[in-house]
Amino acid sequence: MRTNVCCWVTFFMIVVFAQDVKTRRRQIWGSVDDETSPLPQPAFRDTPDRVTFRQGQMAKLECSVESLGTKKVIWRRKSDPNPLTIGRRTFVDDERISVEHVPLGPDWHLIIKQVRLDDDGVYECQISSTDRDLRRYVFLTVKQSDNVLHLGPEINITGKTYVEKNQKIRLVCNATGADHSPDSLDWFLNGQKLATDVEKKVFIQMQVSLTDKTISSILEVEEADMDDAGIYVCRTSDLQIASTRVDVLNADTNNVKRGTEKDASGDKSDGTQSRQVKIDHGGNNNQAERNMISFCTTIILFLLSTILTNVHHMLPT
């Protein structure tokens, strides 16, 4: 009996002590429900929703989020479901686009360098969540800059205008469109359309840049022959045309040219004739010397003979 009474007294004291601890805990920390309440949801700060920049400037579209937690901020154009950026990573092949963010800070501003007229439109700053309300729109207006030079369509051909036979002909044609890059570009030689031909060693490569509104085509003719000389024309789908003339030089021609072997042999023969003339002149000089010696000898003998004759007459008989 005494044992049961002790057990009930101990149980009652434990219950009273637990209730007292609970009461004190509520007084210090608040209710237990406050401890188990969910984390605050992300929310947008007030930032400008309409911005205007001139062409060529750096555009900044502001977006600030409080209590982002582990979620991500996504930028995209409203007209395009594909993201421009997710967090600090860029998902488009455009070096002009980036995100300005300070670690642990609330700002996630979209930066567009050298903003263009086609960047004009509505942009969306979205928080990665199933709640479609966690997004806000920023209207970007791009005005024409007074310093921008308006350039119309342009086309040009670059490359050597002459090559040696069996060398490579390489021409590059660049064309720029007004609103977008031309759809295609064709090559012609003397009025005949060219295409890639492995047997004839003719190769055509084409590249298109949507950002620069240009199309580029490279024409290569391996081991050029005399038939590959002529007028080369490149023409775009919007009928822009450029042309250049390419000459193929035949280094194996039989015509006598300055500096060729025949010319050198002629120089050698001229040198030989000059030496022969010099030798002939030398022979003539030697003959004159011999004649002079013979003449002098005859005079001397004549004088000696005259002296001896006079001496003989002067002696007594």
TrEMBL record:
<keyword id="KW-0472">Membrane</keyword>
<dbReference type="InterPro" id="IPR003598">
    <property type="entry name" value="Ig_sub2"/>
</dbReference>
<dbReference type="InterPro" id="IPR007110">
    <property type="entry name" value="Ig-like_dom"/>
</dbReference>
<feature type="signal peptide">
    <location>
        <begin position="1"/>
        <end position="18"/>
    </location>
</feature>
<feature type="region of interest" description="Disordered">
    <location>
        <begin position="253"/>
        <end position="285"/>
    </location>
</feature>
<dbReference type="GO" id="GO:0032589">
    <property type="term" value="C:neuron projection membrane"/>
</dbReference>
<keyword id="KW-1133">Transmembrane helix</keyword>
<dbReference type="Pfam" id="PF13927">
    <property type="entry name" value="Ig_3"/>
</dbReference>
<protein>
    <recommendedName>
        <fullName>Ig-like domain-containing protein</fullName>
    </recommendedName>
</protein>
<feature type="domain" description="Ig-like">
    <location>
        <begin position="42"/>
        <end position="135"/>
    </location>
</feature>
<feature type="domain" description="Ig-like">
    <location>
        <begin position="153"/>
        <end position="247"/>
    </location>
</feature>
<keyword id="KW-0812">Transmembrane</keyword>
<dbReference type="InterPro" id="IPR036179">
    <property type="entry name" value="Ig-like_dom_sf"/>
</dbReference>
<keyword id="KW-0732">Signal</keyword>
<dbReference type="InterPro" id="IPR013106">
    <property type="entry name" value="Ig_V-set"/>
</dbReference>
<feature type="transmembrane region" description="Helical">
    <location>
        <begin position="292"/>
        <end position="311"/>
    </location>
</feature>
<dbReference type="InterPro" id="IPR013783">
    <property type="entry name" value="Ig-like_fold"/>
</dbReference>
<dbReference type="Pfam" id="PF07686">
    <property type="entry name" value="V-set"/>
</dbReference>
<dbReference type="InterPro" id="IPR037448">
    <property type="entry name" value="Zig-8"/>
</dbReference>
<feature type="compositionally biased region" description="Basic and acidic residues">
    <location>
        <begin position="258"/>
        <end position="270"/>
    </location>
</feature>
<dbReference type="InterPro" id="IPR003599">
    <property type="entry name" value="Ig_sub"/>
</dbReference>
<dbReference type="GO" id="GO:0050808">
    <property type="term" value="P:synapse organization"/>
</dbReference>
